[in-house]
Design goal:
This protein is α/β, with parallel strands linked by helices. 32% of the residues lie in helices and 19% in strands.
């Protein structure tokens, strides 16, 4: 057997490089982060961040003893110096490790790791909560190093019991004359071996409590003001006495370690410190509070502190000339003369809460082209004797002669899934036409029939074996080439497209940053044909420009951009359904929306089985699914299909042994649908009833714009609507796909995603406030949320320079479509409530005469002269009101309990029915406030029954009398 030789020199390990780099941290930082300085008593190093346009140091800090680092302005952080070099220079951990090794001349084994000498482990100390009274009486009066504290705060649980003391020490100014302070948490602890208890200068475990939890529990209805520190919270409590002022321990960098759940359902006002880290911290907290379910999260407008507090005639006034310096907080406001009276003036006028802390709007950054893989030789990672050149793969035996194996075949990385299974090799090569091909070779195929399972597929894809050698020799060498590859470079196999951390995976590229290269593992999935044709400028000129003024066109394009935002905001899946006349341009609108992602092939038909649609939906996760002509779907299953799409989860299926079958498909997406009928009308064809959950999951927007142009509002220079529609159909086949990649590149810009998500969230909230009444039902709120997301997505794409539209185009389009939905629905009320009322109205209109026995006398007697009532529902009493021309009558219906429950509202929750009708004033409550009354009925005596005084919409005279 031929022995292969090659480069056998061993690279230093990650551990070697980390160890040596930490010992030489000053040299590393001088090289990659020059112009910095030591801070915090020499424990940390800070310098301008070279990945941003920093002009001064401050936000990026490196721990000099551990090598950990963080930029508190962006949230970027890492655990060692290899992470830091990769962050600054880009590339992979392997490349960063090599750069450090080259700088410090690290060789394998140069940093031998010695095992620590065996010692008895130091026992841990665990905080006791709450702190016993006897322990509180022995609380230390001073710190052994810092002396007597300037202030002590006691953190308490919701019952008012102490859990921790926090000491503040004001130290002498630093060399620049700036005041210094130190905080030290103090807890009553028990040693893990249980032998003793004592006070320890250590904090509480995560999650840590908020300050004044007892007051939060006691004033459960009061709004909350959240500050960055205890001193600021004390000041805020003085300035806003109607609020519960609180904070979390350990400052802005530790907010994520605090337990914010007590703020769920509360109005929480954020008061950030006036600096970059303070505002970034509150941006992140705002997202977390919204996720937790806070009622609202307004923010203090820091611009108000440009006013100067004063007084006139004993009353607080505000004049020009105030100053609000970097780092100022609520405590500084009191120091500058602000009082609760000054703040109350601004709260009353609405000026105190505003958008001063809001992230700045994006300045139309130009979309960047996807970063190319750096060209570097991997021959040092290949098995001995193998070389990869632009001409192909070559193997050199003992004689030194290079023999060709195949055309160039680069091994990118070893692959595995998120569970560490399904290992393989990711390879890349060009076929004879120059098209780049990439394939993940499962490791298990290397142990079977190599020719059939590996070589065959490679050749089918366009790899060429060396023609000058026998097929067997070339095949054997190729097997050795692949089987002998070893590298620390890794790629992650994923089974869905869309978001993976901060990276967005498309079929042919990865946008954004991820710790590892991502590779989509098809496994039979139906990939969406996301692709590009033409340039972004051509799409803007040929397609985007025609959307301006045409609200439904602009709206569906905005919906396309909204798909990738669902994950960022935590919104649920859902869709929009455009319905109306078959010749109104609905399919054209779908094709225009699809052009954001790819060509017309992206438009799919509703004619799919439910499990096929599951696979299609999963392949479109974090994006847009376009479905044409709902009439193609069986009306018997359409309702459940809409539920499935909106819920984002497929069905669990069993195999032939009754066990769980394949993994349940999951997705998060927006979908667009069209049809001549609404979902309710289509379901009615199969005698199915529309439920509120279905209505909200697929919002029906009438296709007709009521301008005599079908779905269009303006023609933009075309002769008629047909000509405009034909032009759009022709253009979407030529220009497509570039808007999505441009949008994603801007969205994934380093350090910007949090800012975009905050802007979008606030834009959505503003849209809902401006377009829905305060009394709108929860269903209308959910619907408006989705319309608002489309508006925000379109405006963000416009700000990124992707659409080419004037500002406000997407918002106007979404508003028009929302109002069209509301008009067809009948307002912003609750769908279930409307359905209950409609059910009662239908019964009275159909059976008010025939199935309700007349009761015309004041006595409880049946009218003997009236016809006999068959299948009686109850009784009807008619009363006259007024005289002459003003004479009119009203009917009161007394419905028997069994008819009410088993016939009129069959299948409905009777408690919910009664509650709704009582709230609407349709039911007359009994003397005890219950929905039914005890009435002496003709021929029946005292009976429980439901008294219906009026049903809105059944009779205008009854409505007038009511």
């Amino acid at each position: 057997m031929t022995q292969r030789t090659g480069n056998t020199s061993k690279r230093p390990s990650f551990a070697d490089v980390k160890s040596v780099a930490l010992k030489n941290i000053d040299r590393v930082l001088a090289h990659w982060l020059p112009n910095g300085k030591r801070v915090d008593g020499g424990k940390e190093y800070t310098a301008p961040n070279p990945t941003r346009t920093d002009k001064r140091a401050g936000s990026l800090k490196v721990n000099l003893s551990k090598g950990t680092w963080a930029d508190f302005a962006t949230g970027d952080k890492g655990g060692d110096l290899i992470d830091l070099v990769r962050y600054i220079d880009g590339g992979t951990d392997v490349e960063a490790c090599k750069k450090l090794a080259d700088l410090l001349s690290v060789s394998a084994g140069s940093a031998t790791t010695k095992s620590a000498p065996t010692k008895n482990a130091t026992p841990e100390w665990n905080a006791i909560q709450p702190i016993p009274v006897e322990a509180m009486n022995k609380c230390p009066a001073k710190h052994r190093q810092h002396g007597v504290p300037s202030k002590v705060w006691i953190y308490r649980d919701a019952q008012g019991q102490p859990v921790m003391a926090l000491y503040r020490f004001d130290l002498s100014p630093d060399e620049d004359g700036k005041p210094r302070k130190v905080f030290a948490p103090l807890t009553w602890c028990k040693r893990s071996d249980g032998q003793t208890t004592q006070w320890r200068w250590q904090g509480l475990p995560e999650p840590r409590p908020l300050l004044r939890l007892d007051e939060l529990a006691l004033r459960a209805d009061a709004p909350v003001v959240l500050c960055e520190g205890e001193k600021a919270a004390d000041a805020a409590a003085e300035l806003l006495p109607d609020y519960v002022a609180t904070c979390w321990p350990n400052g802005s960098n530790s907010w994520h370690k605090a337990d914010l759940t007590p703020l769920k359902g509360r109005t929480v006002v954020l008061w950030p410190d006036n600096d970059t880290s303070g505002k970034s911290c509150m941006d992140a907290i705002e997202l977390k509070l919204v996720e937790l379910g806070a009622a609202s999260v307004p923010r203090i407008s820091l611009d108000v502190f440009k006013l100067k507090p004063s007084s006139k005639g004993g009353k607080p006034t505000l004049i020009k000339g105030g100053k609000w310096a970097d780092g100022d907080d609520a405590a500084d406001a009191i120091a500058k003369g602000w009082t609760a009276g000054h703040v109350a003036e601004l709260v009353g006028s609405g000026e105190f809460f505003g958008s001063a802390a809001e992230p700045t709007e994006p300045q139309q950054p130009k979309a960047k082209a996807p970063a190319k893989r750096p060209a570097k030789s991997k021959n040092d990672l290949l098995p001995g004797g193998f070389r990869l050149t632009p001409e192909g793969v070559f193997y050199s035996g003992d004689d030194g002669e290079a023999r060709p194996v195949c055309s160039p075949l680069e091994i990118i990385a070893r692959t595995r899934d998120d569970k560490g299974h399904n290992w393989g090799l990711l390879v890349e090569f060009d076929d004879p036409d120059g098209a780049k091909k990439r394939w993940n070779i499962p490791a298990r195929t290397m142990t079977g029939d190599f020719g059939k399972d590996v070589l065959g597929p490679l050749v089918d894809m366009g790899l060429r074996l060396a023609g000058s050698r026998s097929g067997r020799n070339a095949r054997n060498d190729l097997q050795s080439y692949l089987g002998g590859f070893d590298s620390a470079q890794r790629a992650r196999l994923v089974t869905r497209l869309g978001w993976h951390d901060n990276a967005f995976l498309l079929p042919e590229q990865q946008i954004g940053s991820h710790a590892e290269h991502l590779h989509f593992y098809e496994a039979g999935a139906q990939l969406p044909p996301i692709s590009e044709a033409g340039s972004l400028e051509q799409w803007q000129q040929q397609i985007g420009a025609l959307c301006v003024g045409n609200h439904r066109l602009a709206f569906v394009v905005s919906v396309a951009f909204a798909g990738p935002l669902l994950n960022l905001l935590g919104h649920e899946s859902g869709g929009f359904h455009l319905y109306g006349d078959s010749s109104g341009g609905k399919t054209t609108h779908l094709q225009v929306a699809a052009s954001v992602y790819g060509g017309p092939r992206l438009v799919r038909s509703w004619r799919s089985t439910d499990n096929a649609l599951e696979s299609i939906a999963a392949a479109h996760s974090d994006g847009l699914l376009v479905l044409d002509e709902i009439g193609m779907c069986d009306p018997r299953i359409i309702g459940e299909t809409v539920y499935m799409l909106g819920n984002g989860t497929g069905k669990a299926r069993a195999n032939d042994r009754g066990q769980a079958g394949r993994q349940v498909q999951e997705w998060r997406l927006l979908f667009l649908s069209t049809g001549e009928k609404t979902l309710a009308q289509h379901m009615a064809d199969a005698n199915k009833e529309l439920k509120a959950g279905m209505e909200v999951r697929m919002l029906a927007v009438p296709a007709d714009a009521s301008k005599g142009l079908g779905m269009f509002d303006v023609l933009n220079g075309f002769e008629d609507a047909a000509a405009l529609s034909d032009a759009l159909k022709a253009r979407v086949a030529k220009y497509y796909g570039t808007p999505l990649t441009a949008f994603l590149h801007a969205l994934c810009a380093p350090g910007e995603m949090l800012r975009w998500s905050v802007i979008v969230r606030r834009t959505v909230e503003q849209f809902i406030t401006q377009n829905l009444p305060a009394s709108a039902s929860g269903q209308a709120q959910r619907a408006a949320l989705r319309f608002g997301l489309a508006a925000a997505a379109g405006e963000l794409a416009t700000a990124f320079g992707v659409t080419g539209w004037p500002d406000g185009t997407a918002t106007t389009a979404a508003r028009v479509c929302l109002h069209a939905w509301l008009a067809e629905r009948g307002g912003a009320g609750n769908f279930e409530g409307d359905a209950i009322l409609a059910r009662l109205r239908q019964v009275i209109e159909r059976f008010g005469e025939s199935r309700f026995t007349r009761w015309e006398s004041a006595a409880a007697k049946i009218d003997e002269h009236g016809p006999r009532t068959i299948d009686r529902l109850g009784f009807r009493k008619t009363l006259e009101h007024g005289m002459g021309d003003a004479l009119h009558t009203t009917n009161t219906y007394y419905v028997l309990p069994e008819a009410w429950r088993a016939e009129i509202f069959k299948g409905m929750n009777i408690s919910a029915v009664n509650k709704e009708l009582l709230q609407r004033g349709v039911l007359e409550p009994g003397s005890d406030g219950k929905a039914y009354s005890l009435i002496r009925l003709p021929g029946l005596g005292p009976q429980r029954c439901y008294v219906v005084k009026t049903v809105p919409g059944t009779d205008k005279h009854e409505a007038k009398a009511a």
